Amino acid sequence: MANSPQAKKRARQNEARFQINKARRSRIRTFLRRVEEAIASGDKEAATAALRAAQPELMRGVTKGVFHKNTAARKMSRLAARVKVLG
After folding, report:
1. Which domains, from first to last, does the chain contain?
2. Is 40 left (phi over 0), alpha (psi -120 to 50) or beta?
3. SS3 of 4, please?
4. Residue 1: Cβ-neighbour burial (10 angstroms; 0-12, 13-18, 19+)
5. Contact yes or no for 54/31 (Cβ under 8 A)
């Protein structure tokens, strides 16, 4: 339990930041799931559109510190490769 005033403030800030990051992470995962679903359905047009929508969201997550840049790059690369294979 935080005892000093600054520790109490940090605890409040950490909780607020956690909630913001949780929402941001959830939003990004939703965009990635849409790409996965489009790939699973075999619709290249929808998959490409979903990938284009997901990319800026994922990069925004990197900027905001939710994901590491290499993690985001790896996810985008793997999704792009899977979309490219679709006929």
Report:
1. 5-85 (1.20.58.110)
2. alpha
3. coil
4. exposed
5. yes
Dihedral sign computed on CA atoms, order 65, 60, 14, 27: negative
Residue with tokens 């409040």: 12
Tell me the pLDDT tens digit for each residue of 28-69: 999 999 999 999 999 999 999 999 999 999 999 999 999 999
Find the length of the chain: 87
DSSP for 36-57, please give it.
HHHHHHT-HHHHHHHHHHHHHH
Total-model pTM: 0.88
